[in-house]
Amino acid sequence: MKLLYGIISNVHGFIQNEFRIFIIMFIALIATSFSSLLLFSFSIETRIEYEKEFGFNVRTYAINCENTDSKKTQKMLGNLDNYFSQKKIRISELSLRSVASEKLKCNIIGYYSNKDLFYCREGKSYKNLDINTSDRIIIPCEELVDYTKKTSYLNDIFKIQDLEYKIVGVAMNCPKNTVYIPYKIFINDGYDISSISIIPDKKLSTKEDKSFMDYIKSYIPDTEILGPPLTDQKEESRFFAKFIQYICLLIFALINVIQLFNYWLYKNGPRFIISKLCGASNGFLYRMIVLESLLYSSASFILGYLIYLLLVPFLKRVNAYVSLSYFNISTAYFIMTIVVYILVHRTAIKIIRKTDLQNFRWGELV
Amino acid sequence: MIIKILYIICKRFIENKTVNLVLMLQIFIALFTLNLTIGSIHKIMYISNVTESSKLNKALYFSVSPWGYAALGNDAAKLDRRLQQIDNVASVGKAAYANCSLPGYTDIRLRLYNKDLLEAFKLPLSMGRWFTDEDLKSDITPVIVSNKISKKYRIGRIIELKVTGSTNKACKIKAKIVGVFDNSNYTLRLGAGGDNLPLPNLFETNENFMIMPEGITTKQSDLKPWDDLGRIFLLSDNNDLDKEYNKIREKVKDIGYVSKIEDMKKQYQSSTREDTLRQFILCFIILVLAISGIGGNNALLQIFKEKEHAIFYACGMSWGTSSVIMMVNTLLNLVIPSIVTYLCLTLPTGWHLLDIMIFDFNNFLISTGVIIFIFIVTSIDPLIALFKTNPITIIRRW
User: Fold this and answer.
1) 3-class DSSP state for residue B128?
2) Is A92 within 8 Å of A115 (Cβ atoms)?
3) What residues of chain A lie within 8 A of the CB of B32, using their CB?
4) Is residue A49 pLDDT above 90, yes or no?
5) ipTM rounded to 2 decimals
């Protein structure tokens, strides 16, 4: 209660004595928060656009195995982990495909990925499940189940030939007539491999690309390998320039926050010193300074977010709107709070440690 | 006295280095991003305006398909003979290119335009003029050079170019510089192929380039340039563009594609509308951040300095001299990041900044002007307060 009263009276005193400065500082903080949110959404959208144009497309290697010796293919796959770990490259996605036939009835993809690549209507994709599991689990695409008959297919049995698999998810927006099973299960169950798709986690250099092609050819010389398409360097640099622009401006916004709180500390320092002279304990003083600064930053961030929400219809109209997830918003808030806290903590400690208050000078605090 | 003042300015500047550095960083970011944003908008507008202001707006672009060219035996002369059979085409614009070098510039792209293309299309020049009929009759080949080349080779100068074409055999051409392009670094190329091409595919960015009329160069030397396989069809004025477009498209459909340049421009404008709007929003954000950041920091800096100036006053310095020191310090905060920004935007060509923006000195001046305006507006209030306050009061407060 005492702390709350202290904070409220301090805010009241600041508004009463320095109303003009309070308004300017608060408006500047709101503007900075709002701009940061907008920049955050722009950078997220640019990242999505970049991933669409230069993400998986420019890293995918497709290997046609229709007319190749399956034993050699298995051997190549067996040594693949070893090859990539030697080159210090990680595999982002690896999928083995068996095309639908009279016997199989559906396309089967033996799948490994360290990212969520498809959304599930129900259940989870393999990223969250144990990929090395010996359980026969499966994710069919939604065309292969009939939701008019049943509301959920989770834990049901899906049969491929004589083998039974437990449904752990139903995939949306994926190729038709396709089921996904773990990569290891696919190999163990002995399906024919008609094609392989390998996506390293970074774009391979010309030298790495050649060496990788040679590696595959050394096992399966009669195969066709479709390497990543050539990328337009100009187009890629356009994306990087955008990122640089957004990052620079986000740094600018952070510097603004630091400067505005520096200014606030400069104006409010004497008030805190007076509190100490009046007998406030060190802990009380520290909490008061930190909480007061967090009150300003939180209030300005919330108001900035409200302005951002008010502008959403306009941003939608000009196609510049990207919905920010709660994670993005809390990340922006967290960064701002941490920066303010570090800055204010430094000054708060200075005030607490100050013993010769009769020699206090205004400018020492900042 | 002046040396003393300069010494004080430098000393104060170094002593307040943290605040000064932060302020300079803010100004640098504001100027850099503002120029990048304005430059991107400029680039989008430039391509549309160039076609708008030339005869290209009422022309058709033909690009040969790979199978069409193969059917013509991969022979450019056969292609031209086939295109001559099309009715109602007043003239056909053609372009070719070669590589050349000059002392100091090793990789210059030399573009050779035929007379029809030169009549239909003119890029903006910063100095000099486009080719005249006298130039075309002259013994020395006239040439228009890019802005970068013009820094070493001025207008009127006769240069000897070492040119390499498709035969890979270098030949020497004497040329006279008659004009200099503006700093957009764009040239028209007719090498792009495909249906519904985006308009920027007809342009190429390069810092080192030259344009020459085709006929004279090839007559003067045994140069064999590479032919661009695209063509510009210019229709006579009394022809209806839409009708002729449909007719010509039908006639050449077995060998290639025809597009209306006006449609290509419209398509480009609609595809870049979102990007332009976003750049405008970014401009707004930069201004908001600059006002709240640079303004706030500048005001803070003035307050910090008031103590020092009160002490100077107490030590016998006039209030006017003290204000000059304050102003010069502020100016340094503005001038240093402006120079760094200018160098960052102009020097490193490896940044590919050329591909995303057009650097224009006028834009740089405008953005610097905006920052100066913010500076002045935010400095006025603390300065007035400083003049009104008694120096003794300031000293007592500190």
Assistant:
1) strand
2) yes
3) 248
4) no
5) 0.71
Mind listing the pLDDT tens digit for each residue in A329-359? 888 899 888 988 888 888 788 777 776 665 5
* A31 contacts in chain B (CB < 8 Å): 288-289, 291-292
Which pLDDT does position A302 carry in this prediction?
A: 92
Q: Say if the Cβ atoms of B289 and A263 lie within 8 Å.
A: no
Taking CA–CA distances from A311, the nearest residue in chain B reads B281
3-state SS of chain A is: CHHHHHHHHHHHHHHHHCHHHHHHHHHHHHHHHHHHHHHHHHHHHHHHHHHHHHHCCCCCEEEECCCCCHHHHHHHHHHHHHHHHHCCCCEEEEEEEECCCCCCCCEEEEEEECCCCCCEEEECCHHHCCCCCCCCEEEEEHHHCCCCCCCCCCCCEEEECCEEEEECEEECCCCCCEEEEEHHHHHHCCCCCCEEEEEECCCCCHHHHHHHHHHHHHHCCCCEEECCCCCCHHHHHHHHHHHHHHHHHHHHHHHHHHHHHHHHHHHHHHHHHHHHHCCCCHHHHHHHHHHHHHHHHHHHHHHHHHHHHHCHHHHHHCCCCCCCCHHHHHHHHHHHHHHHHHHHHHHHHHHHHCCCHHHCCHHHHC
d(CA B155, CA B125): 12
* Burial (Cβ within 10 Å: 0-12, 13-18, ≥19) of residue B104: exposed
A222 in Cβ contact with A67 (< 8 Å): yes
Give me the pLDDT at residue A58, please: 67
Spatial contact of A95 and A197, defined as CB atoms under 8 Å apart = yes
- Which is more confidently placed, A204 or A139? A139
H or E segment to which residue B98 belongs: strand B95-102
Q: For residue A359, what pLDDT is reported?
A: 56
Residues B339, B368 contacting (CB under 8 angstroms): no
Q: B218 or A36: which carries more pLDDT confidence?
A: A36
8 Å CB contact of A363 and B292: no
CA atoms in the 13 A half-sphere facing the CB of A22? 13
> Which residues of A touch chain B, with CB atoms under 8 Å apart?
24-25, 27-29, 31-32, 34-35, 38-39, 42, 233-234, 237-238, 240-241, 245, 248-249, 251-253, 255-256, 258-260, 262-263, 266, 315, 318-320, 361-363
Q: Nearest 5°: CA angle at A161, between A157 and A165?
A: 25
pTM metric for this prediction: 0.68
pLDDT of residue B219: 60
Residues 265-304 of B with CB under 8 A from A: 274, 277-278, 281-282, 285-286, 288-289, 291-293, 295-297, 299-300, 303-304
pLDDT in tens, A208-228: 888 888 888 888 887 878 877
Task: Please list the alpha-helical segments (H only) found in chain B.
Answer: 2-15, 17-52, 66-71, 76-84, 115-120, 133-137, 147-150, 214-220, 241-251, 261-290, 296-314, 319-346, 353-356, 361-388, 391-397
Instruction: Output the pLDDT for position B338.
Output: 92
The per-residue pLDDT for A357 is 60
pLDDT in tens, B125-149: 888 888 888 887 777 889 999 888 8
Q: What is the mean pLDDT of chain A?
A: 80
Q: Do B29 and A252 touch (CB under 8 A)?
A: yes
Between A170-174, A262-266, B77-81, B384-388, the lowest mean confidence (pLDDT) is in B384-388
CA distance linking residue B24 with residue B186, whole number of Å: 33
DSSP assignment, residue B291?
I
Provide the chain B residues 150-179 that lie in CB contact (below 8 A) with chain A: none
More confident residue, B295 or A314: A314
pLDDT of the residue at A353? 77
